[in-house]
Write a structure and sequence with these properties.
Blueprint lengths: L20 H18 L10 H4 L30 H6 L8 H14 L1 H4 L5
């Protein structure tokens, strides 16, 4: 007689008395609604901020902004450099250990996953 349930009982069996159906259902619906509401916004986490907010130009595309009034106009075709020409160029920025470490950290964060640890 004790194992029989009342017809209007909220519980399916004696095992379910610790968590009624409406509690489980409200937790599932609450989690679903919270998940749907958090997906309504753009960027939740800004993973690569310096890559996301940079001035991007397509290949051979002029800048979208007008040049400053005091700038000197440049005309003519683009110069073509070879690898031999690039080897002769000097870097105008001195390679201090702090700058090299800063560049290494940026490479590890932004570039390593595609180019590998060797940077190839």
């Amino acid at each position: 007689m004790r194992d029989r349930l009342h017809p209007y009982s909220l519980f399916r069996s004696w095992r379910d008395r610790s968590r009624p159906r409406w509690v489980v259902l409200s937790l599932v619906l609450g989690t679903l609604c919270a998940g749907l509401l958090t997906s309504c916004y753009g960027y939740l986490w800004d993973v690569f901020p310096e890559m996301h907010y940079q001035q991007s130009y397509r290949l051979q595309e002029p800048p979208r902004r007008m040049p400053p009034a005091d700038s000197v106009p440049v005309t003519g075709k683009a110069r073509e450099y070879s690898f031999a020409d690039a080897a002769e160029l000097a870097n105008p920025i001195a390679g201090t250990p702090e700058r090299i470490e800063s560049g290494n950290q940026l490479f590890q964060i932004n570039c390593k996953h595609c180019h590998g640890a060797e940077g190839r």
